[in-house]
Amino acid sequence: MLLSIRDRFKKSKWLGYTVVVIISIPFVLFGIGSYLSSDGNQHVAVVNGNEVSLAAYEQSYAQQRFRMTQAFGGKLPATLLNSGLIQQQALEALIDQEVLRGEAKEAGYAVTDKLVRDYILKSRAFHNEGAFDKALYQQQLYSIGSSPAAYEQTLRQSLPTEQMQAGIVDSAFFTQQEAKLISALQQQQRSLTYFIVSSKATEKQITEPSGVELKAYFDANGSAYIHPEQVQLEYLELNIDAISSDIFVSDEEVRAFYEEQKSTLKTEEKRRAAHILITIDEAGSEQAALQKITEIKEKLVAGADFGELAREHSQDSGSALQAGDLGIVARGAMVAPFEEALFSLSENGISEPVKTEFGYHLIKLNQIYPATQKVYEEVKNELINQLKVNKAETAFFDKAELLANESFENTDNLDIVAEAVDLTKQLTGWLTRADQSGVAQYPEVIEAAFSEDVLKERHNSQVLEVGQNHLIVLRVTDYKPETPKTFDEAKSDIRASLKSERLRQVLKQQAEKAVASLISGQPHQAIADEYDAELIGKGFVSRQDEEVNPQILSALFKMPKPNNGQATYQSISLNNGDQAVLILSDVRVPESSDEGQGQDTRFRAQMAQQSGNVDFSVWFDYLKSQASISRNQSVLSAN
User: Fold this and answer.
1) Residue 352: DSSP 8-state
2) How many independent structural domains does the chain possess?
3) Is residue 58 assigned to a domain?
């Protein structure tokens, strides 16, 4: 499968780009440092003399777009795509990274091979059944087009900047007095009573605008009422799901595939291990460590319990409490001398002292989990599904390549392309930039439809990747430019706008009048009744109260405190058009509990962390302001 894809790369430049984008997205997990070297003369920026390559920018853009697509629930608004914000954020992220990388290098930050190795071994993304899994590590990296060597190089570039940032953030502190003041504000509670002056009760009182008022408003604001530009499209859609439904796999193919994959259809041998570790101290007393581990070995030979000795003597604090248990271990998870000793033991066997970079170990093999071969019937359905996927992917890539080539060669004709690729041409109705239904649900479609090359030149679009293994090529068949609405066309919109503004003003006046009445001392319930509103008493609420409207809660904690037992009052506009009248009658701070001292310590640590992050941000802003940064607008505009 991989060989066939590689061959297609050689034949189709477009397909290569498409697959690069697909595999680049998961690189958000690993960083993009390895791409920061310049790629010929194609660079997007120069930071302190170091070029940021176009390849790095394209990678960063793909990641940023993926993040924002996820944030918007899988569909980016066309206005966001057209704003250039994603491109700007992608570029600035690379510039920031290069500024930090250069400063870390200048300051002498570096990482050792051991630090890189420990970081990888501790990464949960590469753990299986609680232990590092070398096969999983390699598989995950290869699946995104990377390799262990490339990932380790990325870590060597990124870890120094993390060390530098930690040095600044971790140096921050927060005094006890500061913590008390902030804690009191955060824990403060306020007594809330409120009522709503509702638009529903008032809108019937709003008079209809006269024809003269409507016309006068249109004459003054007519330019705001327009018919947006519209396009009609024809398009071809290639989706692997449609291809998959027609795929058939014979029993002979499945059996042959099983024989071909048989060596991979088995579990790897694993071993459950325990150990006792005696470290070699900084003074270098290796002989003392060896003597102690030898004495422990002699006790074991004499019949002592391994677990008890591990609890008593092992200097690996993590496993000592678990009787030395290290869990289930696969090959590649441990350093070479440890692994060699472990996998040479028989079950329940105990090794001789083994020296590693961590000290001296005694290793016990508690259980062997042998490799097992999966039988045909056990994996038959899995193999059928995989064969269907393989066939569908092959057919999809074949058609995708043909679609790209034909749409490029026949740039002003989709009928020829449809016939060559065996796809049915589809048509849309009139679409605006704001449409999000049908094929317009894909931001890439709207972006392409209103692009200069497609809209003005009437060329076929590029092959648009609107989902995984889901492609669209489109062409504009008709266009309506933006046109102003006539008075008759705009009349209903103007009427709604005028009535809405009048309603807003009336509600605001009513709420302000209610506040004035409350300040004058009139009863709360009487004023609420005057506006047919329910007087709602919430009692004391905190800043984090989830049962109170966030707008009301925010306004409540900005109101002046009650003075000499006199409540304070305020009205605010809500997002739905209503007005809320707030009554603040008391403020309190709960007394500290018995756990107050421990909570105070944790709180100070949290505030110190936040303060450190602010310090780092301020320092970095200064660092960036002093850096020599130039952005290559010609390359950016072309991409």
Assistant:
1) P
2) 4
3) yes
